[in-house]
Automatic annotation (TrEMBL):
It is found in: Membrane. InterPro entries: MamF_MmsF. It is a multi-pass membrane protein. This is DUF4870 domain-containing protein. Keywords: Membrane, Transmembrane, Transmembrane helix. It comes from the Bacteria. Its main location: membrane.
């Protein structure tokens, strides 16, 4: 299904902002754009991904300081998956997050 440039840009913007703000941008898009299936599906996938990654950040606050370097690995993985999704969206290809628990189903 071909998406308009505006729809692609908005989803990419949401994903870019989610690198900084976590699951809030996908959550807001998921709740606000219920009638647009492209926005709904893209935000659902991103939200599931961020909710899967979030426990790693939460747990890191309780680990010893020398062990928290794992968070940098999690950040790099998150960056790779989100940039990959942004590129696939720009090419009008389907995208998935391989490390994602489907908390929110279709």
């Amino acid at each position: 299904m071909n998406q308009s440039r505006r729809e692609i840009f908005i989803v990419q913007l949401m994903l870019g902002i989610s690198l900084i703000l976590g699951f809030f941008p996908p959550l807001i898009m998921f709740l606000l754009y219920k009638k647009n299936p492209f926005y709904r599906e893209s935000s659902r996938k991103a939200l599931n991904f961020h909710l899967t990654i979030f426990p790693f950040f939460f747990i890191s606050y309780f680990l010893p300081s020398w062990y928290t370097k794992i968070i940098y690995v999690v950040l790099v993985v998150e960056l790779i998956f989100i940039v990959s999704a942004m590129i696939r969206i720009a090419r009008n290809q389907s995208h998935t997050y391989f490390i994602s628990i489907p908390y929110i189903r279709k």
